[in-house]
Amino acid sequence: MSIDLKQLKYFLAVAEEKSFSRAAERLHISQPPLSQQIMKLESELGVKLFTRTTRSFELTVAGRALMVEAAELLGKMRMTIDTIRQIDRGEVGRLRVGIVGSAMWGPIPGLLEQFQSQFPRVSWTIHELGPNDQWEALRSKQIDVGFWREPRIEQDVLKQANLRQELCFREQFCVAVNARHPLAARDAIALPEIAGEPMLSLHLDQSAEPRYLLQCCVNAGFQPTIFQEAAEPQTLLAMVGAGLGVALMPETTSRIGWPGVRFLPIHAHAPSANLYISYPAQDDAPVVRAFLKILFPEEQPA
């Protein structure tokens, strides 16, 4: 049996119009091929769909049953086609977003709000992971995109992992000091001015970022003394507030107004806290494309 949707569409038009001529006009075809398709459909089904007389025709019992089923089938097909097109446009689906904790103090919440507003049928989840864990999660397809900071990953390493990485938000590190510290009265400082201060840092083996910051200090002319390491930036701020040391933090952390902490801009050669997005290079996931359009409204990243 070979019945296609076009035959059902033609049949439904004739059944609804109760006229071959009106149905042909509605379908923008001539009457002979319409009649041929109806006859072919009857032949394939092995039933009569219409009772014909010289003046009129009526649907048979089988024809009335097919009219109901055909209308339902074609309606479902239209809904299916519409859903498939929405999926292809990234309007339906799921997006799993990896982030470093400090990214939520910056522009990421606003970005997610904009994405939700424009794509309300896409469900998304946040996965707070360090850069190393995000790297593995991207490679194992446990997340769809990841956000982390400097240093940027080398292109050959990205290529081997089948990933892309694009700069999305520019930012610098500042110095978080206790509000009673003598430096707290300054509007800005130079990085070497914290040379003798106990340094609070994220775990050096957690990602490349804390090691990058240490190298920035070395480049500025001093070897910092790491007093304590922690897994989360808010832990560092709690220790700064307790007067246990100083910490290099992204500038956007100053938005949270941590009690007992002052955030001082670095007025020369401040370490970069730029935020990057990473995603699979060859994964043509529509929701990822839609998300990138929000992030890069002018043009898509290469």
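Above is the first protein from milestone M3; the second protein from the same milestone is given next.
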Amino acid sequence: MTIDRIAHVLIHGRVQGVGFRAWTHHQAELHGLKGWVRNRHDGSVEAVFSGPGEMVEIMLKACHQGPSGSLVQLVEPVEGGDHDLVDVDGFEVRRTA
């Protein structure tokens, strides 16, 4: 897989308790992306998507909708850092941070 783009985002709204992490994991795998997703103590969801630019863009657009039951208010980019992708094979769900 060619990694053309890495996107690190925070997703705000009603995004916990609605299966957002499982949905994100499934969608990322369907699009052949690497990275991770986790809940945050502030009620948001944090995710990193890595892969072909067009697939990352499709995933980011999907995150604006989310799974049924969610109500996404904002998908906010996070700037800087290596996005903790060094030893990630595939896409994983991480513990709450």
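Note on the second protein: Helices lie at 20-30, 53-65.
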